[in-house]
Amino acid sequence: MLNISGLKLPMVANEMVTGNVFFVDSNGKHGTANNTNDGLHPSRPLATWDGGINKCTASRGDYVLLMPGHAETVAAAAGIDLDVIGVTTVGLGYG
To answer: Please, what is the average pLDDT of the chain?
Structure first.
């Protein structure tokens, strides 16, 4: 968060975020993961990457953050449906 004279502006990786930031954490390390959560805080994470994409609005500049330790199986046939334009996904952690 960038704080300018009391005005808090959301930032991810040193970039100003114009849209929403949605948190995905399947392991529940930061909060109980469920795709019915709003996903707007690490303590209310979404369960799947697709759940994060589904919360996004096209061309708003939304981010989906995959929290450290998040894991999910993606079947080759089904894949992940990246069907919202202008969304950035960031995987936090390593591996």
So the answer is: 83
